[in-house]
Amino acid sequence: GDVIRDGEPADASAVKLTGPAPTGAADPAALYSKVDDEDPQACVERCAEILSSALVGLRAADCANDAISGLLALLPPERPAIDPNGECRFDLVLVQRCAQLVAPAAALIKGSSYEKTHTWCRFLGLILSATVRLAEEAFEGAEQ
């Protein structure tokens, strides 16, 4: 059946009911409420889920921005690379998965007001810093 969303009919089969709908939410981090914020892989996977849903949803750019903002709230690029236990927060799989988020996120925000925002720059900074952090960890491991 059809549902009315923002005054427009939408196919109910396209509505994914896995949590709060990412539509310009006041608190994008709420989209990650069921994700362990100490598990970077889970945070990145949730971002991928939100971006994937946004590809077929309404207000795709808003959804993408919410996904990115929420991810940055949980994994800020400014956070130290080493956790309190002395472990690097990033591994090769995580860095690769983060890099895979760039294309869908860029496609979703292209041409929108989010394209040249501080949030987008911080997101790209997260991707770049994750790569550098992984290289630093590998270098430090080789020295020991």
From TrEMBL:
Residues 1-21 are annotated as: Disordered. This is Uncharacterized protein.
